[in-house]
């Protein structure tokens, strides 16, 4: 009997998916520049390569840190902060929101489990607002690209936004709002890592062969992920600095006052890609005249309204809670921008 092997005929959509890959787009940028504007091809490539090499030490340290946290099972430490008095939970959730070593698919079952177990919405909201804004890898990438003052300012803004959101929700709940926030039952785990709700971390993970394998896997995966997105980010920054008129950027988000800051917060909604690409784009915008306050508002507003962050919230809670999340995030972005402008 003859076996017929099914063959897959590539569709146009398959090719389009490949074209949308950051690697493909990164390689296409210098090619397109060389075709359309040959004199600037070498400067664009040189700018992007130098920027990537300058950030390389931060990339290595960030990859080692996140792989170590995952191998040790540090997620269970984060689960422990959602116990005790509500005020204490809000403060700890805001502080530790930026340290959570969750992948995007782990956030949903973690939060769903907390809400299903009766954890108050206020500390969950504090964690939710702070978590997408900063974590160890993005903190280091921001420091390497924009400097430590901006990176620390972003971390402080993330914690401040978490505190503001947590206490705002607690105040609204005391008035009878958000009494039943959960939309769905807890989602099943995706299978990528230990259960964050149980277990104890093993900090000396190198004594366990399985955890060492986890470390190697996470190191390779995160190194590839960071290099992919940062190469794309610096290629975009090179284009931005080369071709976008400085007067245009300065006119939109330059100067002092609340209007450029609010504009940057709103622009961050569609323009923000992820926490690894954003610093390079912001560096380019600041070179072209973007104010420091507008830059902070852009990164805070864009982080809260990024697709993964919004999808996690929308999939679990009712519409009014989602609206509160977006409203608190945008208000916090503008406030963060104003404060950072005054300090910087």
Automatic annotation (TrEMBL):
Q: Which UniProt keywords apply?
A: Cell membrane, Membrane, Transmembrane, Transmembrane helix
Give the UniProt subcellular location, in the record's own words: Cell membrane
Pfam families associated with the record: ArsP_1
Domain of life (superkingdom): Bacteria
Concerning InterPro entries, the annotation shows:
DUF318 (IPR005524), UPF0718_permease (IPR053166)
What membrane topology was assigned to this protein in its record? Multi-pass membrane protein
Annotated membrane-spanning segments are: 21-41, 47-69, 90-119, 139-172, 229-252, 258-282, 294-316, 322-343
A cellular component term from Gene Ontology for this protein is: plasma membrane
Primary site of residence: membrane
Identify its protein family: Belongs to the UPF0718 family.
Q: What is this protein called?
A: Permease
Q: Which species does this protein come from?
A: Yoonia tamlensis
Q: What is the lineage of its organism?
A: Bacteria, Pseudomonadati, Pseudomonadota, Alphaproteobacteria, Rhodobacterales
